[in-house]
Amino acid sequence: MTPLKLVARQHLDQATVVTINEELKVGDREIIVMAGPCAVESKELLLAAAYAVKEGGARVLRGGAFKPRTSPYAFQGLMEEGLKLLAETRRETGLPVVTEVMDTRDLELVAEYADILQIGSRNMQNFALLKEAGRIGKPILLKRGLAATIEEWLLAAEYIMSQGNDQIILCERGIRTFETATRNTLDLSAVAVVKEVSHLPVIVDPSHATGRWQLVAAMAKGAIAAGADGLLIEVHPNPAEALCDGPQSLTPANFHKLMQDLQKIAQAIGREIAI
Amino acid sequence: MTPLKLVARQHLDQATVVTINEELKVGDREIIVMAGPCAVESKELLLAAAYAVKEGGARVLRGGAFKPRTSPYAFQGLMEEGLKLLAETRRETGLPVVTEVMDTRDLELVAEYADILQIGSRNMQNFALLKEAGRIGKPILLKRGLAATIEEWLLAAEYIMSQGNDQIILCERGIRTFETATRNTLDLSAVAVVKEVSHLPVIVDPSHATGRWQLVAAMAKGAIAAGADGLLIEVHPNPAEALCDGPQSLTPANFHKLMQDLQKIAQAIGREIAI
Amino acid sequence: MTPLKLVARQHLDQATVVTINEELKVGDREIIVMAGPCAVESKELLLAAAYAVKEGGARVLRGGAFKPRTSPYAFQGLMEEGLKLLAETRRETGLPVVTEVMDTRDLELVAEYADILQIGSRNMQNFALLKEAGRIGKPILLKRGLAATIEEWLLAAEYIMSQGNDQIILCERGIRTFETATRNTLDLSAVAVVKEVSHLPVIVDPSHATGRWQLVAAMAKGAIAAGADGLLIEVHPNPAEALCDGPQSLTPANFHKLMQDLQKIAQAIGREIAI
Amino acid sequence: MTPLKLVARQHLDQATVVTINEELKVGDREIIVMAGPCAVESKELLLAAAYAVKEGGARVLRGGAFKPRTSPYAFQGLMEEGLKLLAETRRETGLPVVTEVMDTRDLELVAEYADILQIGSRNMQNFALLKEAGRIGKPILLKRGLAATIEEWLLAAEYIMSQGNDQIILCERGIRTFETATRNTLDLSAVAVVKEVSHLPVIVDPSHATGRWQLVAAMAKGAIAAGADGLLIEVHPNPAEALCDGPQSLTPANFHKLMQDLQKIAQAIGREIAI
Question: Which of A3, A70, A72 lies nearest to residue B152, judging by beta carbons?
Fold first, then answer.
């Protein structure tokens, strides 16, 4: 992995800690859980989801306003309206917000509302977007591309960091393989490799990785034990009626149960889930 | 493949023929070869490459002005300056130009200079870019994503077509697999599948697929025999000194030899290489 | 590819030509087509298939007596009875026979009846079987494993050759990838790579590679144009009622049509289909 | 996953517990660690390794006498001599032994010496071997094939169980993907899927999965947290001089440290590492 410079472990004496709203720290001893619905659907649902995940111990609310959908005929998200709902919900619940940006032209708009800007798998090598993300003063959640090697993923982070922004959270979310029992194949060894070669924090998204809520708890536990600095989990008040990714969303009750289990594992490895 | 609508074979009585500059036809009986250097490097090199490929029978000049590079420290292309060189070279040689666009903000600029706009593998699911490409009155060359299923690739074309632009040329360029003897694994069966389920023309890029010039001729021949409507081939006057992708570039001499071989195969299947 | 020794191009001055029954040559200028049903089902069906493929120009009859099936509850083949039917059919039609061997204990039995012993994808790294195949005086058809690199495949051939048998025909039959539109992904670049690094002949099985008869013709043509020394094609008198792999089997009529098309492509590259 | 019968969860009221030497239980509340060198190299090294892993808490000694090697020129194992050394070492240390069998002809011989017979990745679809393994009265450790879907892996177990042997331990050991930072990609979600659809116990081999000892601890922890019933870990008294797989072998000291960490995670999920 020679071409890594700024994101390489050798570049820094210590692990990078990403600070959200001058308060929440990702990459420190405490493990951060981000949770919420796949997409922002309505004010009521978002608020219900936000309170549910907050109660369970999530410290960041996730929710998509701009949705990358395989088909142009699928629900594309509420866009700016969705961003406003996220901001309102943050005001009411106090939870900072992570949401995706898909186009350089939307970056400033999304940055106005979001606390963390997500660059999704499909845009991991949208180099124009990466460069712009490097010029903005907000933390970036950089998901690994569907078929990106760990080296390519870190070089995508290098694009951001080379423009002056070191507030980068990496997110492993499964890679594409021949296996069809899961939506993607969660590559937890990527967590260990990132820890070895980079100083950046890395979290795991077990929801997109598996595509089935029944598998989310096992993979969330595995991720914490393997050293992840956080999790990104889909939770929906009513998964059966979700406009997207219902089959991989936990109910609030399952999420609460999971958080308790995760705390025990975090403690077993000398860390703590921030709640 | 149910979600396909506009790009589905059922939608049209006949194959879509993409017309370049009201003259050149892609998707008709004649097979079109597009060739040139990976990147626009200088006026002299581009012109030399253009004359070389024209002499060999290429009908379109390829050359990147905006280059998607894995590392931020690699040559990123000459950008607008490169576009101008492409336009100059077109004036001198008469060859229409295909070049990549990577960002919605650059689309109009690139469209000013290019005859065909290429959307590369890494941006195959940059949905904002696809939508804008659908609103512009120019042919689009849509490369298959590194790890995109054929269905996802066709749905990316559906994004473009749903915005009103049906001038789409699909381009198979290899997918990512475990095999390391080649840069990617050229999936020629994708050509046959596309012909079966869609009315859009499909061409093949054996240069990026194999990553080694020694394998380009065999794969170009295979592509024509398998039914491809064209080829996209990297040719450089001096591959050893190319700023990018030298190892996969043919010399002009090898390109000329290849074109003669391809003509025989085209005729064997009742087609013709347009020269 | 340093570890190759006996199978490496450097080891020999010329391409290895595999001779079947002191008569048929694989790896020479003439291209050999092997065809027949997936499995030996009955004397009548096998004979009908054999005459049909012979009439079309096939020079070798394929047919499985021992069948490697994913489920223990699927038809496992007629075993020794199937071998006897193959031998009878050879007597009547004059076509030499290629059939699979799956277990070291069956090797001598299969060798008694078959002219070419096939080692299938699933056994490509059954090293005990490879070693025994190296000690027997019969040509071996060695299929590439589902997820074998080209180097591993050639090293499997090295196992055979290191025991004294150089009569090895390699067979590319598709590798496992994320794509689901085809049963496997046919890697035609493997043909070109093998030709570059080894002296052994290589053929292509478009039937198993694609899994759908509709795609077989395009891939067979692509294979010949890319330089394959032969083809292995499934043909069944009545694909709809085949006990295995019906969806990928050609009818005799489609096979005859294909053979005529292949002859033209063979001639375009200066070769000939042996008929 | 419809074709599963005997191995399906629906077939049994409870999880299958595999019993080794009427004493050790795999698939029960206690988690079993199997450890030792890749290959049996000499009496001294094997004994040293055995005492080292026993001291760390391993309950089964692993070690290959028959080695499946990609190249015929690599060390192929000590074969029967290796089996005898394993049996001697068992006598001295009391540790039961797991070792690989690669050929139907060797099955009885290996069964004479081994307590658990391992069927390796490359032989996961060696159906003759699976059937014989089903007829022998010993536990079978069935590794997942390099490119086997979970369904195919379970159907391989179905082959064994359909012959009367239900003493099957599944072992996830990484699948082949495009990622090259690790030897294979460990698919921990396979553990969760197996637990969902089958009653068979499943363990994880983090050594072969990652190929680098630096990553073994993280993946071993992840595996336990995700629900694995055991681990298979390579430990060598002197990894730098191992005849095979040195780079993925732990030193005894690292193994002891790991076992202490694993115990805490096991307890966090309500289980216990058997020591």
Answer: A70
Residue B228 sits in a domain whose CATH number is 3.20.20.70
Nearest residue on chain B to A150, alpha-carbon basis: B70
Residue D52: give the domain boundaries.
9-273
The answer to whether residue C102 neighbours chain D at the CB level (below 8 Å) is yes
Its ipTM equals: 0.97
pLDDT at C26: 98
Does B275 reside within a domain? no
Interface mutation vs chain D, best among A188, A215, A229, most D CBs within 10 Å: A188
**pTM higher than 0.95:** yes
Q: Does the pLDDT value for residue B86 go beyond 60?
A: yes
Residue A73 in any domain: the answer is: no
pLDDT above 80 for C35 = yes
Task: Tell me whether residue B274 is in a domain.
Answer: no
Q: For residues C221 and B244, which has the higher predicted lDDT (pLDDT)?
A: C221
Residue to mutate among B9, B182, B186, B189, with most C CBs inside 10 A, is B189
Contact D178/B at CB under 8 A: yes
Give yes or no for D29 touching C (CB within 8 A).
no
Which amino acid type is present at position A250?
A: L
Which runs of E-coded beta strand occur in A135-192?
A: 140-143, 168-172
With CB atoms and an 8 Å threshold, state whether C180 touches A177. no
Q: Is it the case that residue C129 has pLDDT exceeding 70?
A: yes
Q: Which chains touch B (3+ CB pairs under 8 A)?
A: A, C, D
Whether C225 and B224 lie within 8 Å, measured CB to CB: yes
DSSP A115: S
D129 touches chain A (CB under 8 A): no
Beta-carbon contacts of A12 under 8 Å, excluding residues fewer than 6 positions away, are A199
Total tally of structural domains belonging to chain D: 1
Task: Tell me which amino acid residue D164 is.
Answer: G
A69, closest residue in chain B (CA to CA): B127
Please tell me the distance in Å from D176's CA to the nearest CA on chain A.
8
Once rounded to an integer, what is the mean pLDDT over residues A227-255?
Answer: 95
Per mean pLDDT, which range of B158-162, B218-222, C242-246, D144-148 is the poorest?
C242-246
Please report residues of B whose CB lies closer than 8 A to that of C226.
Answer: 218-219, 221-222, 225
Is the Cβ pair A147, B152 closer than 8 Å? Answer: no
Residue D1 has pLDDT above 80, yes or no: no
Buried b (16+ CB within 10 A) or exposed e, D128-151: bbbbbbbebebbbbbbbbbbbbbb
Please give the Cα distance from B84 to B77 (Å, whole number): 13
Could you give the angle at the alpha carbon of D175 between the alpha carbons of D174 and D178, nearest 5°? Answer: 120
C191 lies in a domain? yes
pLDDT in tens, D70-80: 999 999 999 99
- DSSP letters, A59-120, are SEEE-BSS---SSTTS----THHHHHHHHHHHHHH---EEEE---GGGHHHHHHH-SEEEE-
